[in-house]
């Protein structure tokens, strides 16, 4: 099996809040391979964005406390100095932020920003070469009349066009991995689909991998290869996108899927919201964080936090109701479940 492009081990992220710590990310581990779109999904405040920014040290150093390992090409990025990270950001790992209007420089033409990103990581390149590449990227991301648009300022473009420019800017230095943090939140449904189709096309054409952070399960269904489900700073389920939708194991994942419309639902079937609210991340939680909202909660759920266990090969969940220690299920039963959850 190929070595992962990026491997995250036991990542913790906390923020200093006066005399307390807000534990935003609590020991998540995952990997991403080349030519893959990995989705990270969960409610607002579950730690998705904090984890993503920690990967490339974009969190404020005066308030963020980060531990664990982020292995990229066999080196731990969390041990890199700021000068070393400047060679990684953009060149090796790019990022698409949630709001392009606050991420693009309003005083620079869009072409200048792409050219600057290219020249920064390609020492000795000529300006004419960088400009030609900027035009190529604007064409690649679907901006019409790129030769005239290259001289426009961000505020003259629509939201969808600005997001396309952000993607072009992220591609400027030809990175191996792009982190897309809620890239379609502020866009209407039609433009959302265009941007997501564009990301998938870029993966196919350039081989660039994506980490797609979202709260929208329909986006996950249509565009991701594998999915990580986060709740209250922890990973509660990870699996292929087919397994997540065909056989969701964690009650939280089941709740997310029941709260969105699906084409295979009965016409009059109601959407079922997840009752309650996520817990305060500044409080110490001894048991499962989802326990107060879970209809399957067991006595042990209030006392001890579950660890990730294999539901089947490539499918892991952190839930006591599926733990072999709790249910005493045999390998034969797990094999039967694997067959039940398989997709033709």
Annotation keywords:
alpha/beta, Rossmann fold, 4-stranded antiparallel β-sheet, 13 helices, 33% helix
Radius of gyration: 21 Å
Query: SSE order in H/E notation?
Result: EEEHEEHEHHHHHEHEHEEHHEEHH
What would you call the quaternary organization?
single chain
CATH class of the largest domain: Alpha Beta
Largest sheet properties: 8 strands, mixed
What is the number of E strands?
A: 12
Number of helices: 13
The CATH superfamily title of the largest domain: P-loop containing nucleotide triphosphate hydrolases
Give the strand line-up of the largest sheet.
Answer: 6-7-8-3-9-10-12-11
Q: Architecture of the largest domain, according to CATH?
A: 3-Layer(aba) Sandwich
Mean pLDDT: 87
> Which fold name corresponds to the CATH topology of the largest domain?
Rossmann fold
